[in-house]
């Protein structure tokens, strides 16, 4: 199997890497953190690069690219610790293009592609514990449209978003709705999260909503899988840069008159970090390539990828801190921010134990060994 990237994909990677190096420095990131953890200016720059349009179908003003292209982009954004949630554009374009009506597609996909509208998934509820089929939100038919009553938590950049994709119970079944921010009955409470990005709690009280699909669970599962594929790719980028920072530090830090990179025990730990990174990279590739598979196969594949990524992110982050010593957790040092990002990513989109549960529930008699 050929895992080489095409020339176009390599050029895309180089373009994003150049922007990260020049346009999203650590100093700029820290200034955005002080402003709340989200920058509309940066979002517009991502749109100018064509990244918000990357996976939107061409007929709606997008570039019509696939999962591998999105993976390439997210790896580079991970290296730069970019906080603006580009993955949400991939999630929204996937859900709307595959499940939305023609009217919804025509109204929203061109604006998502142009970066004019930030549409984010608002699915998590307190009691759900990552389960997609647990949903207390309610939707009611109201004339030609619908209203939604819901409370959703940890919505990415929720107080900055222009609209939300909200699952809610409709006639005893989960349906998916589009709810605009600023509409009557819609309120958000924004806050900074562990990795210094932005999230919010969303409250809808009889808020006007547009139906995306009455068969919401398959669409919601797709949204989670697309989001986790992007998260895995971003995690590879974060871990790669974490490993680079760690090795650079070890080649500078001296103890007993020699650099600590010369100590065999520490070199073995770095080798283990590299191994975990490469295991994560291979599973990220696997997950992205499985996004086009049938729904059940895709969902189990993403659970496999997320389990490996969770284990790798925890290991690489913790070993980096140990090898740095005290400086590894100081706010002034960039490495501590990579550690915080890895810590939060392990719990985003379902933590490792949650996805282990999915895998165990889908084991067959052969456990896949002889199949």
Automatic annotation (TrEMBL):
Domain of life, per lineage: Bacteria
Cofactor: FAD
Molecular function as annotated in GO: acyl-CoA dehydrogenase activity; flavin adenine dinucleotide binding
Name of the protein in its database record: Acyl-CoA dehydrogenase
CDD domains (UniProt xref): ACAD (cd00567)
Alphabetized Pfam families for the sequence: Acyl-CoA_dh_1, Acyl-CoA_dh_N
Entry's family note: Belongs to the acyl-CoA dehydrogenase family.
InterPro entries registered for this protein in UniProt: Acyl-CoA_Oxase/DH_mid-dom_sf, AcylCo_DH-like_C, AcylCo_DH/oxidase_C, AcylCoA_DH/ox_N, AcylCoA_DH/ox_N_sf, AcylCoA_DH/oxidase_NM_dom_sf
Acyl-CoA dehydrogenase/oxidase N-terminal domain: residues covered: 6-116
Keywords, in A-Z order: FAD, Flavoprotein, Oxidoreductase
Location of the Acyl-CoA dehydrogenase/oxidase C-terminal domain: 220-362
